[in-house]
Give the backbone structure.
Amino acid sequence: MNEKINFTIKETFASAVQNHKKNKLEAAENLYKEVLKKNPNHFQSICFLGTLLIQTKNFEKAKQLLYKAIETQPNNANVQNNLGILFKQLGEFQKAINYFQKAIEIQPSFANAHYNLGVTFKELGELQKAISCYQKVIQINPNDINAHNNLGIELKELGDYQKAIICYEKVIKINPNYGAAHNNLGNVLKSLGEDQKAISCYREALKIKPDSIEAQTNISDIYISQLDNLEKAISTSHKTQETIRKAFIINNQEISLYRLKHDVQQAEYLSSKNYKINGIDKFQIIGNKILKRKENSKDNNNFNQKILLNYDEINSLLPFYKANHIYQTSKISESCINPDKNWQDVEEQYFNSPKQIIYIDNFLSNEAIKELREFCLISKIWNKEYMDKYLGAFSDQGFISPIHLQIAIDLKQKLPKLFGQHKLGKFWAFKYDSTLGKGINIHADFAIHNLNFWITPDEYNNEKNAGGLKVYDAPAPEDWTFHKYNNINADEISKFLNDNNAHCTNIPYKFNRAVLFNSAYFHETDKINFKDGYESRRINITYLFGDRLVKKLN
């Protein structure tokens, strides 16, 4: 009888593993659980189910299982490694590091643990440590393409472009169909100013993966930066937006409530303007039902949470989410930036400013800002969600029109000393829910000049002396990488600013006000208190010119 049970356990476990390998996670989970019902101490099922639950983001249950496994076999390197993966995903990086290092201590040639340790150090901005980890992986397995690729990424970020190129070329030699390496090689060539070679690399990546959003956005970036083929720049960006829309999925049957609130409001706005978009009517009905359900719940003030959807709700929401819709702006007959302003005086003001921080009122022409607002309200381009509960739209992913590009051209022409020699890097917009009260955390950017301007009318701002931008007149240290100063703890940045006696310039929000400052300066959004509603959402647009790293290398 016992032999029959054991055979059944083996058979069930084998079936679970096969389903797991085929990414049939629900079936695999049920089979692992079936094994554990018959034998609660079946070690492999405990470990494999723990790994699966990490994949499905059931972290607490995964933690319980892996802790049970480590009690049984404390010197099992795989379990130590999996616990590291779990804590990395939870953002508890030091715990993750401890578990990866324990796995390596147990099994020094455990390449995957070295790799995961490298990825964790990268998250912390400790690139030299990450590099050492990837080099160790390559020492263990010289043909590990992921390690070669990641090593190239870190070397590129440190400005060692030639060594980065060697890494990517090595990957491509081992596996010519590794699309990420073609894309990353393009990134290095782009940084070196070899735009056509970079585009060729991106196109190779697209041959391998035609729906690669990263490769598409990189091509868009180049056309945008060149500013000599506006039609091409716009069409490639809009194509990327279409790809994003087609690929839209609702992960784990969840949707962030602040995102849903925005999208329902936008659908209602579009309907009021008589836009006929696939799925829009049903989206409004079902979306409002979900929001109403949330209103009636105990935590009805917590719009930061995610809400669980049933399959009928998902199927009702998806057609509208997948529908692409971008507003076609009208042509501007004159300069997009204010033609009545003395722009030479603006340049002199900036260069005479000891802090390199100035603001410009009445920045855009009336016609340009009217069209920009229409574009932001009507276009379904708000794809990126942020932890602080605001939405982003990017130039290489649909946030682009002739007006956007004309603004950049006008800036180069009207302010040649500031912008003439610098390429347009990126531009983007952020849109906030006024009930959240918070904006972008303190950070710095990679460019030479940062131009930020606001396009929501003043009548929607409840606090006239707030809602703007706080800029600290201390640049990010040159030995801090872009990844580091955008991902480290805010307390560490605050300490740096205090140590360097940085002064904060607080520029209050004002409609059609632009703030121009040294992009290396740390900056953050001031507290936000705007009226609740779709048209009243605070919108800021940012343009970046020049590349600080390239300037340093030259």
